[in-house]
Amino acid sequence: MKTKYTIIAIILSLYCYAQKTDTLIINAGEILGNRSVLIYTPKNYEHEPTKKFEVVYVLDAQDRDYFDYVCYTINIQNYGICPMIVIGIISENRNKDFLPANEYAETFEALIGQLGNADYFQDFIEYKLVPYVDSAYRTLPTKIIVGYSNGGTFISNLLLKEPNLFNAYLSIDANFSYDKGQLISKIKNKSSTDKNLGLTSDIFYFNCSSVRGEVWNNNNKKFNSYLKLSDKIIYRENNFNNETHQTVSQIGILTAFKEYFKYQFFDAEHLINYYKSLRLSMPTNDILSIAATYNNSNLTEEANKLINYYKNSLSNVNPNSMSIYDLFEVANLFYDMRQSELALTYFNYCDKKLDEIKPTISKEDYSFGKKLAEDKIKLIKSSNN
Known about the structure:
Layout: E1 6-16, E2 19-27, H1 29-32, E3 34-41, H2 43-47, E4 53-59, H3 64-77, E5 85-89, H4 94-98, H5 105-110, H6 118-136, E6 139-148, H7 150-161, E7 168-172, H8 178-193, E8 203-209, H9 214-227, E9 233-239, H10 248-265, H11 268-278, H12 284-296, H13 300-309, H14 311-315, H15 324-336, H16 340-357, H17 363-384
Parallel strand pairs: 4-5, 4-6, 6-7, 7-8, 8-9
Antiparallel strand pairs: 1-2, 2-3, 3-5
Helix pairs in contact: 3-10, 7-8, 8-9, 12-13, 15-16, 16-17
């Protein structure tokens, strides 16, 4: 149900963790009214003016600690190799926003009528918020949505209604008991005719649960059993048996993003194919940063896969675009990875650049650098003979 919306204004900018967060107010139509949205951009957004970013949409951003924790988790867990734009959607009445219209009168009575706007809320996200973010910011097509409790119910319902809107769904202890298991009936019926639920490409879905009773946990298992049947859903789950529904959100968010980053960025072959699908060439700095992260994480085989694929571009890099310190760091990375050809190339770059910058550095630094470069060049050549 498309409706018309009007952007009113960006009314606030503030900085947290040295990054920028704006607050945007949107007129979301007669049913939803004016809505506030937080827009977080990482520091790379300002420093790398041509770089594009994946976007994470976070429900329940009225809890600012929760929204900030998502931003913080992304920054820590991705090792700096995939900074993201984070959109926080504020809901003053979360049950009304997140829950679809009830089918049973008892549900309406139990929630005192605070439900039923999920379709309008989906329209707001799909037809206004996502297009606005994509037009106003430098975004990649990849979109992630995060929902906790009834927020998890909403994103799972959204998956059934509009399966190709998001590329990753992070569901934290979703309420699948709502309205006598309404979503279980929906996914069962949809899966009976199409086990892939209308998906045209692969998506990532993370589910976690806490200890909240047998019925709650069984309904969680029932819903997600249908997701596991799909060939197009990369499904990951974690059950936190020592957490309650109240305490699970923090560890759930942490684990969800760890699993997503592992899938999306810590498999070299998948990462290479991901960039191919985006029709983007990976910047040299990103290749080197990711390779170093792989190597430091004992993923040397993955690091070598990445380096071997991009070897031609790495061999032809302009050494003048890098400082002497960066050249030595890269040369040592290749040396540690036993990429002898590239290591030799970069230590030769170091040796040449030291002669070029000799008048600008101390004699001690020059002598130390020359000895280091020449010793490594000799070692590599002798090992190659």
